[in-house]
Design a protein that fits this description.
By secondary structure, this protein is α/β, with parallel strands linked by helices. It is built from eleven helices and 13 strands.
Amino acid sequence: MKFKDQLNRNLYLDDNPHRIVSLVPSQTELLVDLGLEENIVGITKFCVHPTHLKKSKTIVGGTKKVNYKKIAALNPDIIICNKEENTEDIVSELEKHFSVYVSDIISFKDTFNMIEDFGNIFNSKQIASQLVNNIRSKLDDFNNFIKQYPQKKVTYFIWPKPWMVAGSNNYINETLKLNRFENIFENAPDRYLEVYIEYLASLNPDLKPDLIILPSEPFHFKKEHVEKLKKFIDCQFIFVDGEMFSWYGSRLLKALDYFRELHTKIK
């Protein structure tokens, strides 16, 4: 059987894969929600949902560094990767010996396409189709809900040393737009970029953020970071669950409920 991944690369499989290694936390969660938990044989140490999975599956490393011998010992039929989460070197090494599917998620459309790909590859078309329909329906409801809220200029930090923010052409920016959050770095040339917080203080009033968003991952921001930023930026600060803004796949169902609740906390 011939399939294509989201980098438009061909995958040739003799049969629907039965032994899966997933190197992407959000896609591990998706595989479980597609009814494929028993087929997963290897995951990363960051694959924390569902929580019991790390007790029953082999941990093969992280997203940027993996144990190739452990993966080989699992004899996977397919390995699930992501262009942003995993390195090009990891993908290149693994595809010498195994079939590797690489996702590339920037938009909700990309998410739907990935879910449908998994439905085709793993013979779970009906479950995948129903999941996409459920997300689309909930997304339509949320789009109607969010119309009542004014647009706000925001900065979404992802790291404090050095200070880094979400820029353009990434899934976080897509979830920000969904919430009527105007990312002041949306037109930056980089997906993620280093910023000097003094720069934010020097912006014209009409360009300054109304809201600073501090997520729980990839770095877990705390009150001490708010205090540092407040010396330069006068606006509302809010801590958020980073998984809801950055995990794609079936997580979007939970994220849409989370976003509704979040807007009740924003001034």
